[in-house]
Amino acid sequence: MTTPLSLSALDQLPQSVETPGYRRDDLSPGILHVGVGNFHRAHMGYYLDRLFELGESHDWALVGAGVRAGDSVMRARLERQDWLTTLIELDPKGLNARVIGSMIDFVDVDPQSVIAAMADPAIRILSLTITEGGYYVDAKTDGFDASHPDMVHDAAHPDEPKSVFGMILAALRRRRAAGLPPFTVMSCDNLPENGHVCARTVTELAQLSDPDLALWVRDNVAFPNSMVDCITPATSDRERALVRERFGISDDAVVVCEPFRQWVLEDNFPQGRPALERVGAEFVNDVSKHELMKLRILNGGHAAIAYPSALLGHHFVHEAMADPLITAWLSALESREIIPTLDPIEGVNFASYLDLIVSRFANPEIGDTIARLCQDGSNRQPKFILPTLADGLRGDGAIDGLAQEVAFWCRYCEGSDEAGNALPPNDDNHEMLRRLALASRQDPQAFLENRAVFGALADNPRFCKSFAERLTLIHEHGVRAAIADYLGSGAI
């Protein structure tokens, strides 16, 4: 017997399920969030829920919004259950379930409805989780991609935009005309200097159609950088069955996540903000060092284990971490080549942070998959691996392990694991990547000629030599031998 999730059903849920102790009627909107996916609800939604539970910041409730067709599906699911979400923390010591009540509405998935909601003076923060690839960044120049069809359209039709950035500008234009202060734009996506990237996209798009508005945005709108962290797997039938069988709740929008989360933000909110420091968020003057630590040690670590694990046939991340060679490879690469590229952070011990990452990856309850970590390599490698490699080359540091990580990716892009099983395509550029990877069996440099990914690194002789050697080792002796050789325990 299960109980469909709703406000009226909260008192019918099992005592093992935590429910909001605050009245939803006491909440009023303060934040409009675009991109109401699993991570947002497990992270920002959770922080606000805990803050409201303390009786604080009740005028900072969330209103959801979306700009893609798929967002309508999420809106319909959440509307049926009064915008509530069951969040299950996958703690190996015992699962915990809580109903998150920090969202009080979800705007119709329609550009004009979203613009009107953004223009509402009650909204003082506009937050985003639109994925790392959603900021219209030119892969070749790392600058704004003004040639993207969405940007071309929004520049030509600023009152009828398609993109979230066009909607932001339309709303800011309305607020300026009405004499209202602008909202703060807060990116919660996992990319370096996310606030700066977001600011560049908004202002450069404005420059195409309204230079005066672009100048006003530069002078008046805050775009704080932030670092976010919480491993949040995709919801599948496994998770929906879990919430039904373990907790007796019927929830079509259930979210599962690890019991760890972190949020570090630059304290730049001219129109005010919720007191998130009361529930564990950190506010700092400069988030860049924390951000770089997370991107390189955690996200770089995910990339490091993803491709060799896939080639060896591992399905779940925790299964890969139970393989002593994979764990040793991760720890050695991090310690020898990734951590040495980081500047010290007061109060942070990188070795302890790495130990935490290893334990998080090994959590068997999360059910995160190697296939997920392997996705979108042509976007993720330039963000999580290649900058570390470039720093190592500039500083004359060790780079053989990072070159081997790239070689593992190359071998993965051939489309089969070491047992000959097919690896399904999971990159928008998979056909080109496969062609270059297969060509690299005769000429390793062929894979590096993907300039959109490697840029000037393809011309660096030390990297090219190391990549060729590591790829040849993988082709001739296999993944395990290549890792053993890097660890210094191989017999090659």
UniProtKB/TrEMBL annotation:
Signal peptide bounds: none
InterPro entries tied to this protein: 6-PGluconate_DH-like_C_sf, 6PGD_dom2, Mannitol_DH, Mannitol_DH/Oxidoreductase, Mannitol_DH_C, Mannitol_DH_N, NAD(P)-bd_dom_sf
Keyword Oxidoreductase: yes
Domain Mannitol dehydrogenase C-terminal: start-end pairs: 286-472
Xref: PANTHER family: MANNITOL DEHYDROGENASE 2-RELATED (PTHR43362:SF1), MANNITOL DEHYDROGENASE DSF1-RELATED (PTHR43362)
Domain Mannitol dehydrogenase N-terminal: 30-277
Pfam families: Mannitol_dh, Mannitol_dh_C
Sorted UniProt keywords: Oxidoreductase
Superkingdom to which the source organism belongs: Bacteria
Gene3D superfamilies (UniProt xref): N-(1-d-carboxylethyl)-l-norvaline Dehydrogenase, domain 2, NAD(P)-binding Rossmann-like Domain
A Gene Ontology molecular function term of the record: oxidoreductase activity, acting on the CH-OH group of donors, NAD or NADP as acceptor
Protein name, as recorded: Mannitol 2-dehydrogenase
